[in-house]
Q: What sequence folds into this?
């Protein structure tokens, strides 16, 4: 391995920054959804308010209609958003916000864990290194059937028994060109 002629080694994008960007975007989306839901709170709250509509109550077998309490209805209509959220029994706003932010934290963490240790080294005889989650691989160039560029600065390497995919590579195009040229040279 030390005597092997290395043609190119992968350079990763800054995975930490990418993970932070994913987290920030997820948090912003969560906040936008939260504010969108909260912007509709008045119409929802007034429509479901017991104070703004006449109530029918059965007392002693008789139906009695209680008129709407206009004073409490106006208080309900003019209630601040923060008070409304505090009084919301279902806490649906906080649940949606927490769910979206939790999902963005998980995706950000998985992105970092998955891609931070990947390394791709191309030599004259083989392609080797570590793939997602730090698993090692070693593929002879003769067994590689094709190579292609992928999304998110990625590259896909197909062999007879494997399919390797790498993402967040700064030099994915150079790696693609070198592997392609090595494949053409090996077929001659």
A:
């Amino acid at each position: 391995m030390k005597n092997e002629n290395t043609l190119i080694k992968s350079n990763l994008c800054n995975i930490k920054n990418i993970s932070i960007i994913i987290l920030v975007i997820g948090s912003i989306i969560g906040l936008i959804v939260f504010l969108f839901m909260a912007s509709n709170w008045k119409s929802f709250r007034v429509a479901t308010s017991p104070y703004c509509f006449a109530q029918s109550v059965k007392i002693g077998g008789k139906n009695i209609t209680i008129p709407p309490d206009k004073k409490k209805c106006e208080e309900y209509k003019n209630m601040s958003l923060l008070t409304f959220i505090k009084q919301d029994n279902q806490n649906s706003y906080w649940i949606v916000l927490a769910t979206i932010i939790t999902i963005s934290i998980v995706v950000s963490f998985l992105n970092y864990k998955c891609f931070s240790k990947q390394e791709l080294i191309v030599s004259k005889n083989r392609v080797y290194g570590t793939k997602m989650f730090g698993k090692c691989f070693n593929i002879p160039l003769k067994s590689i059937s094709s190579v292609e560029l992928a999304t998110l600065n990625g590259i896909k390497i197909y062999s007879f028994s494997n399919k390797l995919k790498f993402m967040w590579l700064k030099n994915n195009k150079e790696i693609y060109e070198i592997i392609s040229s090595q494949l053409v040279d090996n077929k001659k």
